[in-house]
Amino acid sequence: MRGFRTLVSLGTVLAGLAAAGPAPARDLTVVSWGGTYQDAQRKIYFAPFSQASGRKVLDESWDGGFGVIQAKGKAGNPNWDVVQVEAEELALGCADGLYEKLDWGKLGGKDAFIPSAVSECGVGAIVWSTALSYDADRLKTAPTSWADFWDVKTFPGKRGLRRGPKYALEFALMADGVKPEEVYTVLGTPAGIDRAFRKLDELKPNIVWWESGAQPLSLLSSGEVVMTAAYNGRISGLNRAEKKNFKVVWPGSIYAVDSWVILKGAENRQAGQDFIAFASKPENQAKLPEYIAYGLPNKAAGALVPAAYAKELPTDPANTAGAIPINADFWVDNTEELTKRFNAWLAK
Amino acid sequence: MSGLRQRLVALALVLPLLLFLGVFFAWPLVTMSAEAIPQSVVARGLPRTAAAAAAWDRTTPPTEAMREALVADLRAAPDDQALAGVVQTLNSAKSGYRTLIARTVAALRGGEGPADLAAIDRRWADPAFWRPIAAETANTRPDANLLAALDLRRDEDGTIRSLPEGASANRRILVRTFVIAGLVTLACLLIGLPYAMLMASLEGWRRQVLLAAVLLPLWTSLLVRTAAWFILLQDNGPVNGLLRAVGIGALPLIFNRTGVVVAMTHVLLPFMVLPIYSVLLGIPRNLMQAAGSMGAHPIRAFVEVLLPLSARGIVAGALLVFMAAIGYYITPALIGGPQDQMISSIIAFYALQTANWGMASALGLVLLAITIVLYAVYHRLSVDEPGRA
Amino acid sequence: MTDPFIRLDRVSKAFGGVTVVDDLDLTIGRGEFVSLLGPSGSGKTTILMMLAGFESPTAGTVSLDGARIDRLPPHRRNMGVVFQSYALFPHRTVAENVAFPLRMRGMARPEVAGRVARALDMVQLGAFADRKPAQLSGGQQQRVALARALVFEPAVVLMDEPLGALDKQLREQMQLDIRDIHRRLGLTIVFVTHDQGEALTMSDRVAVFNKGRIEQIATPREIYDHPRTRFVAEFLGETNLIDGVVDRAGAGTATIRVADGTAIEAATHHALASGEAVTVSLRPERLRLSPSAEAPNALPAAVADSVYHGDHIRVRIDAPTGSLIARTPRGAPEWDRGARTFATFAPGDCWVLPR
Q: The pTM is what?
């Protein structure tokens, strides 16, 4: 649903800019990604926290985008308290001072979490992965790598990729033989970027570009594409709900951490700290994989997840082999320039 | 006395309208225009560096004074938010400042006295990372965003040049936006004009059914209609199923311009049909009979009589459709291919993703300016024919 | 009628099951001015529409000069049409409107200009050539419409209540103008109207329509003086109708016994049988009010009402046969209410209708 609501978000931003007057006391407002994921969060985090603390929780959803966070910050008295953000929004907002500092004492210390989930301004909520996916009922031979993704002779048909430079450039380099762990080193040089675009040139006629997370799944279901990059959480969800046989190719996948943050100056920042602490407890986090296959940043939570669910998670040791974390710093620096270039490349 | 009172009452009556226009029309326009013009944020955020860099030749390594001034400026910043604009502007000029400044600020925090910038991040040793600072503090160019919106930039010597090929595609996308809007307008006209004529020629329930058919889409959310077309136009969707069944075979209808034009035409058709229909209703039916009795073939009568008389409705409908189509975003994003993205998606990218409000506003202004020019051209054309119905 | 120029042969027209024109025959001669007269819904306009080609008959044939035209589209019929609402093209000037039919015929520009100028002069609008229709008065607009319908010298000019929207004075002026043009150009004109005065003053012949049929078609004089049916007698002008039974039928005259037993002597133009039920039509202007009963027919009556109309006086009297209207000329003796009088008339003044 992400791309779908962007227009709505724009409206929210403008409304936020316009609303300058004092607001009456609000309920604790928690903002997340919507869809089945937020349904699960409501069940295991929002409602239980509300019951335990006696505070009402109002949950909203958004589509991401640093512009939205910045507009909320500029408005002075943000109408959101706790927001789940992606790694880049965490880095950008933290550098620009748009988030409150977290009280790590409440969270049980930084050591309780995997390193990539720890920051001054945010704590990891989930670990999710963007990976090559295909419908095993349609493809006789299983693709195993991004090189296979680029191989239209062996696997004829269209491929789905997220529209935008992020992921597309990384996957292109891997398909071109760059080792996963070296991808960002290569991408850090102008020659590396040129190389990635050249590799994308090869596949361009066969790519269907998607924007919202639900699209690659419907593309796969309808047979519009034979394989696609997709978010792993949605794959296992769909397999369970619609008895599909979609497979995830873990090597070469890129995982990322989404974090909880508190907007600077938010009215309910204290309650927000309590909420984040509640949602970060291992026993609470461990309930999530039953609903959606996202990895858990709290180290202790991983051990509590039943084995049947654990093997679908990006954090399962079998799945991290050959996978790399997203380099948020690279994208924080280069999103604007590379998106411009990507759009120009698309328009050619 | 009563005259003044009357005037006050009249003013009070139009006040809500004036407020509405001011708040929802003038104010956003003014703020958008202001946003498009870059403020000298870098010079204000880094005043010492600006002074020190004024004398620098921009090719040799940065001077000791500049480095000291930058350290002092970064330490003097009251909080991170104060630097946000500086970082945003510099990163737009050259990728890398986001992490560079964040890392440097973190390293300088709490410390005092001279610091070795190159040791904190070796990018500081590269003159390439000093040049944007010097350039942005030396003279802020008010037209930088507007030029960038058109894939142009000013060189150091002030001449305007195109951005290198492949760096940005705003111009191409702007042209494409107008081409798609034009195609949609044409398609709406080709369908809408006969439809409106049919509707105007019928009476009773038949007319009501046609009217409902054209109004119904207006009462459905844009998203729902777009999603419906997404399903209909798929390679394995109902439309292609039908085409296969009648032996034509599947056509590529989705992720290309055909799909975008089909879906947008459906969404915007009411805006073409309704103005034409209302104008047609005012045309006496016996004009066509009169033309026929004077020896005009129906086609000739249509061209000579009905078409010129319905021109006002056609132009109004075409303007409505065209203007609405220019701003389309969701439909091309979902139904279109990479060659069909319109300028709104670029504006949304700058506004929502990178928080580059300057570029978003500049693109918006360019769009507005082109639209106003087109409207002026239309106005001139319509004034050239005085008395046309 | 010289030769049948326009011929409608057993024409019917139904709209959605409702018969508007019912098995109708009509022939019109070349150069003739024929009015189609009748109440609204009587089918007269539908006939005109079928002549123009805007409607096609459900059954029967329409022919012009011996050739069938009922399948011909309007633009190939060469008929000028003048509409009640003028139907001028609002986006064209007066001259352009008049030039339209000539341009449609591919006429050369200079010739078009000449003809347009002549046509506009004919309707005295030469000075208004460059105006738009909206800048003209109703009467001027209708004259433009007339010029436009005549300029291409059509075989037939069809007029659909062309003067209906004009005020009385203008209407009478235009009636004269149209009649004048008809005479000068020798046009064949079919003129639809519901105004019986208009039909009587302008036409060579009048066809009276009722319920999709022609009740009578004849010269104005014939149709006024000798209506064939009660409907025609009532529709054209005012008349007093007295029901009765033929008492004695002779050659050229008959004695009709009316309701109260009074006998009326009437001249007849067709044979009547004794005992036949008839209606006597007596035009108000034929009735004379007289103090004495010295006349072939004299009905004793009392004056009920007397109204001054300027050019005549309208007197309502109560006679044994019922209420009657008499129209007495200006200057005739005035009658007070309640005065006793005799309504007198000659046998030739009344007209016997079948009942």
A: 0.78
